Amino acid sequence: MEALLKVVKSSDSSEEPLIPHSPARETPGAQRISVIEDEQSEAHLSSPEDVLKILKSKIPASTLLEALKFLDPASLENGDFNIIIPSSLAAQILHALITTTICDHWASLGMEHDPKPSYQLPSSQTPQAMLLRCVKSPSGIGTLLAYLRSLLPSQTPPQGKSASSDKGILIQDALSLLSRLLSPIDLIFHLLTDIRRFIDHEVRKQLLWQETISLLASGKVLSISAESLKYTELSVGTSAHSWISNGKLYAAWLGKNISSMASQFSIDDDQAWKYLGAFISRSLSIGQTDQVVIEILHTLLFRKDRPGTENFINLLKSLRQHDQKRILESILRCLERAYLVNLLENEDKIVDASISNVSIILSLITRDVVIMKETLKNWLISGIGGSINSVYMRRSLLATFASDPELESLSQIFTKSIDVFGDKLSIKHSPIPAQEANAQVILLTAGYLHRLETTDLSSLVQASSYLSAISNRLGAASTRSRFLGMIVGTSLSKLIDKPESRMKFDLAEMESDEASWFLRLSDTQDQVRTITDLELPHTLSSTETIKKRALNVKHEKMQESSAKPTASKILPLEDSDEYNDDDLIPYQKPDADASDSDEDPTLIQRSKPTPPVYIRDLLTYLRDIDNYDRYILGISTAPSLIRRKSGFGSELDEHIRDLSLTLTSLHDKYNVPKFQEYRLQSLTELVVARPLVLGPWIANAFFHIDLSQSQRSSLLVALGLGARELAGYREEDSKAMGLPQGSADTSFPSQRLPPRLEIQYDPTSKHTPTEAISRNIARNSLEPLALNAVDTMSGPNALKVRTFSSRMEVEKKKHEQEQLRRAKSIPKDLHRILFEAFFRPLTSGFSLMMYSTSSYNGNNPFFSPHLLSLFIQTTNLVISTIGPSSVNHLTITSDVLTLLMSLHNSAAATEPTVLSAILSLFLAVLDINIASGSSGEERLVNEFAEQVMEMREWVGGIFERTPKGDDQVRMLAAGIMVKLGEVMNRYQGRLFGMNAEFSF
Questions:
Q1: By the 8 A CB rule, do 169 and 175 touch?
Q2: Could you tell me the pTM of the whole model?
Q3: Which of 432, 697, 791, 928 could form a disulfide with 884 if both were Cys (CB 3.0 to 4.6 A apart)?
Q4: Is the pLDDT at 20 greater than 70, yes or no?
């Protein structure tokens, strides 16, 4: 017997195994034992019990091959044992098969990493194909996941330590088997087909399908795979089977499987569509809905050969109402990214073609899915929800409804939109972006109704609801609300009235470019074509983009590694006595080079990267996170390069959004000491260079892009500092933040803390730059009140050589001179830039967020104390920088008071940082109204009396309830009460015709 068997080590022996294995992966130093049996020995297996018995023992590879042939579902005959059907014996065989195969025979069953797996074909008789077919069932996948989880340690090991060598190899092998098993894009279709073919009872079919859904459509595979990769020596980015732990790639795989199921199901198979709907509903809960929908759209609709429109519609109908709304919102986002992003208004043909393509897909949905049609109508009428964020998407939706032979939908949209547009509560409390979207819908719908049926529009406009809507708009307190009312009234009057009786407003704002753009909306007409005319989007699917990016990076690295230095030709030099060496001046000894100080010349890196010269090179450096030198050089030189490129060429304009997103998403992988400072400086330089582009982009990214709290905080700080720097407050803010002013720290090194400890224990580092500047603004506002109080308490002014308050006159003159000096360097349209690019996007985005979320904000990330206080402080910086001289002063006051009214009674307002920020913002809005003169004070008392008095009572309660130890809050509250008292006394004096003075 000893002559028949021999034990070999596959990693050390040069003999070839009986079953050839792929050289795709060999773990170095791992001793794997495989048993090779003589070719003449045969295993006789007649029952599944025999298979279970031999699997529990140490079996040779040939016996394992016979067992796999016996269990292979592809070679079943009537009456044979089927391992796919759940049973106690099948569960024992699967457990023994997985544990025995992975432990003892993985070296002989090498897996080919084929991008197009074919193990599901019955013709594939390789050992690994038979093994995968045996495991391809809900029970097999569940057993494999349970085995993989059992290999993980129960406790988290210390950082930097991985799993043991033996367990690490087993985990890698189990992950490889799982990745290979899940790789086909039609796996779930075959699983469902096997369940419906081999299981008789309907209840058992549903239970097995629910188990499949819980295994594959939930986060089990993702969580177990990610945790397994953490305990092995494999890198998430380099491992061939790391895709099962990547959320986006796994969601794309789910989308491809869902599309494969939908394309292969019969239209009349209602039970199959019901199973598919249950699977999709669970797939939407893994947090990557857009990736699933993108793959569905690309597979079923974005194909020229055979667009699966009927399958796509059946897929939507199989979902529940709640899931239909979720997937509809994701469809709108995907279509907007595919067709409507970065469109320019001057490119009319491209815009019309893109809108027509979106309308083609939306027309399929509105024609056959009634619930989605009604949902789209409600989103259009309200102006909020559904990810309808651009006028191009509204044009696409209204073109879809206009293509309906019946005009009932358009009439309903117009009538209900007018009701919302004229509602007094909506005018007063709805966010301005929602009101603008409502006005756009009214103008576009009115244009279609006028072209299709003129009499219908005339009757709608003559209704009392329309007249009251225009009247309420023109009487609104907000200038923006009145502007929208004038736009709608003028545009609709131009459509139905004669030239001599048309409504017209002789105001400067009605002659602006924005007003002309609004008035042109009623003349817009978009066409809806058929599905055969659908043009494919230019953007690729997520998986194709990731693969191409990886190939490009790999190609660049191969080019760098293959670059060889060119050797120069060595020529002999002839000695000559004509020249004497006495006239030669020797060079000085070069300075010491830190990079050349190593004694071993082989360790010296001479091919160091050079600083980037172009923005595209900077993007390459910042994205190359695996190269330490390039990454550090890119992040350190980014601020200076952006500053140089801001006024030179168009390179910054071409890459500004990509650069902003790259800087925002950077992670401190190498613990760079000044990482946050470099990133903040770079973002601030971008804001200063292109404020009209970066201001709205940062506000949109803050509210709509999935970012961490630190990344959102960096965006807010960059926006606030950029606004201050645009206004010329750079030096003043540097003093407020405690930055060094050209003099280095001359104290002895032993008296200073290390840099990292200094960041933690330095009192000036406890406050963010925005908080430091906000405190400085509040201090400057309250300082005159304190000095006047000191003058009053210290006796009569006649006995003083100099009063405390007279010092403020000197400071005021210095401040005026500083303002004149700063006015020479700031943009001429600074107030317009700060209002349109900074203030309006911030307040509009926050009001939309408040309007669209629930009343309970406990889990709202924007209501975390740090982020909310930082947002309020940034708003405070912006309005303080705008000052009292802006033409939008009324709108700023209205929006800030509305923001304060929504925050002062919230649960987050009890936090000390948030409370101080709210008081500072209220103090700032009082200051700019007081600085604007008597008109601003009268506006506070008359137009905003309700909000101001409610805030005054709230501030009084804060002052009474705050303990004496909290000086900052008490000081702000007292300053607000005093200033409001002065405003009311001066207003009363003007009413009575006398100059009433306020005594402290």
A1: no
A2: 0.76
A3: 928
A4: no
